[in-house]
Structure to design on (318 residues):
């Protein structure tokens, strides 16, 4: 039931966030008491992404932990993405400390940062401002063990875990996002490739394309997410290419078989869909570093431009 509720929440946020970009799915930055904390209570720091905040507070209450929770303005982005994107930095933490008058609520200077924020936060800058910052466990559910062990980590709570349940959660949230991104793109490509055909009844060209893309995104996305840790390569782009090899030609043969040109264009288009899904999926995980992700984005951009140009130009010269 908890998984279903989480998935409903993620799907609704993904849809609404894209449909209503002006609506903010974040909590107000500030200092939040968990329980009835004293001035000696631990200070935990997190991002202001709504889902992150909700999970953190729920976990702290479940573990009966009394603490101060400092929520930093990360533009409504989760911890690892905001840290990698330079939206979760030491400067941001210092700024929020000042705005929240944290020193008036506590009598110590110990901060506990999420370990996945390490990519963006220079803890030495916090030390220069008088704050003793440590990176806590990967998972908020391990914070109780961490605190009871005098803020010392063992290997078990320091290791990034991406189990199948988390992969499924990420996959469903990501599939909603990628569906709403790719559908308008496919519509645009169809119009550019065949402007006259656009005048045909929508049931003859739009509905089949939309249905096919929808099914492909969800089948491939779920397959990719579930098997993610089993696929060779660290690169999401290469993972997507590899896992597509068995069925992309088959799908193209079944659905794009009118001419040889259609078959070839179908293969190129489906490989593009697959690599868009797989590359972007890495941005939803805590596994791949930002530098590696940016290299994949370059490969994806180059291949996308080539395939889109082929899809548009080939019918004109064929």
């Amino acid at each position: 039931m908890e998984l279903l509720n989480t998935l409903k929440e993620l799907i609704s946020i993904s849809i609404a966030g894209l449909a209503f970009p002006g609506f903010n799915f974040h909590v107000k930055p500030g200092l939040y008491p968990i329980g009835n904390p004293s001035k000696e209570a631990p200070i935990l720091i997190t991002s202001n992404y709504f889902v992150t905040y909700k999970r953190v507070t729920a976990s702290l209450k479940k573990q009966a932990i009394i603490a101060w929770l400092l929520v930093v303005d990360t533009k409504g982005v989760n911890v690892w993405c905001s840290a990698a994107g330079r939206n979760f930095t030491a400067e941001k933490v210092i700024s929020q400390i000042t705005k929240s008058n944290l020193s008036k609520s506590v009598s110590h200077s110990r901060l506990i940062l999420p370990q996945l924020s390490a990519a963006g936060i220079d803890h030495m800058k916090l030390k220069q401002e008088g704050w003793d910052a440590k990176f806590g466990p990967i998972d908020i559910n391990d914070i109780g063990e961490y605190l009871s062990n005098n803020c010392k980590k063992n290997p078990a709570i320091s290791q990034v875990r991406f189990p199948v349940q988390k992969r499924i959660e990420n996959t469903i949230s990501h599939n909603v996002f990628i569906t709403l991104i790719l559908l308008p793109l496919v519509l645009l490509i169809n119009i550019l490739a065949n402007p006259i055909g656009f005048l045909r009844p929508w049931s003859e060209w739009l509905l089949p394309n939309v249905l096919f893309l929808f099914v492909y995104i969800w089948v491939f996305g779920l397959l990719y997410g579930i098997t993610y840790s089993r696929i060779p390569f660290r690169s999401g782009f290469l993972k997507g290419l590899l896992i597509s090899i068995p069925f992309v030609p088959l799908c193209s043969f079944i659905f794009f078989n009118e001419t040889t040109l259609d078959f070839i264009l179908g293969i190129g288009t489906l490989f593009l869909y697959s690599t868009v899904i797989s590359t972007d999926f890495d941005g939803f995980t805590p596994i791949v570093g930002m530098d590696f992700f940016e290299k994949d984005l370059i490969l994806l951009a180059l291949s996308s431009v080539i395939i889109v140009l082929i899809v548009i130009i080939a019918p004109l010269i064929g």
